[in-house]
Design a protein that fits this description.
Elements: H1 6-15, E1 17-20, H2 26-50, E2 54-55, E3 58-59, E4 63-67, H3 74-80, H4 83-92, E5 97-107, E6 115-118, E7 132-137, E8 148-151, E9 168-169, E10 176-177, E11 186-187, E12 195-199, E13 203-206, E14 215-223, E15 240-244, E16 247-248
Antiparallel strand pairs: 1-12, 2-3, 4-5, 5-14, 5-15, 6-13, 7-12, 7-14, 8-11, 8-13, 9-10, 15-16
């Protein structure tokens, strides 16, 4: 039986997302959790050494966005190029896919750790073909600990599902904000090991963490073609093949 059903693939095209519950193998989940905390500790030490509390959209002891460390982590690399992720790419992007970006997104036990409504494409800043975001829950997710909320295409008010709306910078947080409506979205209440699969055109946000534990996810993003910078002179992110002619490509060594 296919991991991603035909109905889920159609929902991705129609509404911009679907959810796969409890699909990350237990051993991989535990390994990703351990790697996450290793990088959080390293990030704390780095910010302490620099004497800073804000670095981009990362805020010390509040929330962390730790990007593109997989080259130093066989655990992360194995997961990113696994059969699981290849199947999700095949069902959403087609027979050609590239790893575009990966990052840990961690909310500490802090009531100021929300993240504003945005499209991932809004952070690229220029037009590009939509890409895939796989929001991998490393903890049981709830409204209380700040899970992700998804705004289906049919409720976001855009003229076209391919449209990238203008995003403004929220001064206090450095977040980009692209949706200003009053729809609260759909919260992903899922167990650890689940994956929320959505398009880079899909609006999403997350709430603050009101619990006394970390809320951790691992975001793996893939594109159907290399995404270039605005003038086309260089790659905007990464472009490491995971699918070629529908077949999974071995992870880089």
């Amino acid at each position: 039986m296919a991991l991603v059903t035909a109905e889920q693939a159609q929902r991705y095209q129609r509404e911009g997302y679907f959810i796969l519950e409890s699909v990350i193998p237990a051993a991989a989940l535990q390994a990703l959790q351990a790697e996450c905390m290793r990088y959080v500790a390293a990030h704390d030490r780095e910010m302490e050494a620099k004497g800073i509390t804000t670095q981009g959209i990362t805020h010390y002891k509040k929330r962390y966005f730790i990007s593109n460390r997989s080259a130093d982590s066989p655990i992360m690399t194995e997961f990113l190029f696994s059969d699981l992720m290849a199947e999700i790419c095949r069902a959403t992007l087609g027979d050609t896919a590239y790893l575009f970006n990966e990052q840990y997104v961690v909310k500490a036990a802090d009531t100021d750790s929300k993240f504003a409504w945005h499209q991932d494409s809004g952070y690229v800043g220029h037009y590009h073909r939509s890409y895939l975001s796989c929001w991998c829950a490393l903890d049981d997710m709830s409204v209380a600990n700040g899970t992700v909320y998804i705004l289906p295409y049919s409720r976001d008010g855009r003229a076209s599902v391919d449209e990238i709306l203008d995003h403004t910078i929220e001064a206090r947080s450095n977040d980009k904000v692209g949706y200003h409506g009053d729809d609260p979205g759909e919260p992903a209440i899922v167990p650890a090991g689940s994956i929320v699969v959505f398009s880079s055109r899909t609006f999403h946000r997350s709430g603050a963490n009101f619990t006394d534990a970390y809320r951790r996810c691992y975001l793996a993003q893939y594109s159907a073609e290399p995404i270039m910078n605005r003038d086309g002179s260089a790659l905007w992110g990464r472009a490491e093949p995971i699918l070629r002619d529908g077949e999974r490509v071995a992870a880089p060594s």
